[in-house]
Amino acid sequence: MLKNVLVGALFATITLTAVGSPQAADQPGKGVTLQPARATWNTGFFQEALVRRGLESLGYQVKSPKDLSNPIFYKSVALGDVDYWTNGWFPSHNGQLPKNFYDDAEAYGYVVKAGGLQGYLVSKRDADKYGISSLADFKRPEVKKAFDKTGDGKADLTACPPGWGCEKIIDHHMKVYGLGEHINPNKATYEAGMASAIAAYRDNEPIFFYTWAPNWTIFKLKPGEDVLWINVPEINPTEAQSTAVERMTVSGVVGSVSDPLKAGFVVSDIRVVANKKFIEKNPAAQAFFEVFTLPLLDINEQNTRMNEGEKGAKDIERHVNEWIAANQETWNGWLDHARQAAK
User: Among 301, 147, 305, 125, which residue's Cα sits nearest to residue 225?
Assistant: First the structure.
């Protein structure tokens, strides 16, 4: 009799451990292996590493991410060859989606809502001095002269290297606003161009540059303090931008010369994109994607550390550890939410 009681108790204990124990509840992804992807621009590596850590904390085995270009990723996630990435920019990426994409994949949550900002900035002291609020002000002789670094009679703009998507938009702006005779877009290596611009700013020289967010540039040169976002003269979209014209003007931009700002570029939401079949089987992952969000300032700060040399895998892992430690309550809340979704 005693033997039967002991056997029954042992069986109940084993069953509880396998099905209903705290350990099982804390690890809803246990036994599931995931294949993430990652964008080719390193300003997106930090958020990818944080999401990967979150999924690992939920019990998933997460492989090293595959670095993919945008079009290849969107095809791969629709086919199920990869499960997700954290680097979706919408609506900017809409034109790169394969046909019937949303039959097989979807965007979840907001890593940064309206965080994918692009545009032109000018040193604040010179914007104030010359009354610069728009690209059109660079047609004025005194402005061109102040920003002319090469003596060719044109204002020098630190622009995008050949092959970048922003290069075509800047060329479009030079044409449609009649700025070809007034602005000289410098298409050299971007990091070298921005390093030169920062050095010039520290020497009290005027600077004029294109950038995007998240990015280290607007951590080193703070909008509203060091530089100001300026307007395009009017919203005149490229063909690719024409489906998102309303997102080329944005309100609430810190350090803008006006509110709203006519950025001239489509402002995007940064979102997690995942395969639908994967999501259906993994409610904990979906729940984590939906609540995961980062302050733009935190991404800019981490990107700055990468720009200054902390860009190896171990460096990024350390940045993840430090961010979680500084935001432990928020992090734990995200994980608890994901675990609840799996019950």
Answer: 125
Q: Give the Cα separation of 99 and 342 in Å (integer).
A: 32
Q: Where are the domains of the chain?
A: 29-113+269-341, 118-266
pLDDT below 50 — which residues of the chain?
1-21
- State how far the Cα of 62 lies from the Cα of 34, in Å rounded to an integer: 5
Q: Return the pLDDT at 14.
A: 38
Closest listed residue to residue 122, CA positions, set 157, 88, 92, 149: 157
Query: 0.90 exceeded by the pTM?
Result: no
* Domain covering 29-113+269-341 in this structure, CATH number: 3.40.190.10
Residue 24 has a pLDDT of 61
According to the model, what pLDDT value does residue 6 have?
40
Render pLDDT for 284-319 as a digit per residue (tens, 0 to 9). Answer: 999 999 999 999 889 999 999 999 999 999 999 999
244 to 95, 157, 229, 236, 251: CA distances (angstroms): 11, 26, 20, 12, 15
Q: Are 131 and 228 in contact (CB under 8 A)?
A: no
SS3 209: strand
pLDDT at residue 23, as a whole number:
56
Q: Please, which residues bridge with residue 263 across strands?
A: none
Whole-Å CA distances, 145 to 88, 183, 332: 40, 11, 55
- Residues 290-306 as b/e (b if ≥16 CB within 10 A, e otherwise) read bbbebebebbbbbbbbb
Phi/psi at 244 (nearest 5 deg)?
-135, 40
The pLDDT, as a whole number, for residue 54 is 98
* Contact status, residue 339 vs residue 286, Cβ threshold 8 Å: no
- Per this entry, what is the length of the chain? 343
Question: Which fold would CATH assign to domain 118-266?
Answer: D-Maltodextrin-Binding Protein; domain 2 (3.40.190)
Q: How many CB atoms lie within 10 A of CB 173?
A: 22
Same fold: 29-113+269-341 with 118-266: yes
Give the Cα separation of 299 and 87 in Å (integer).
13
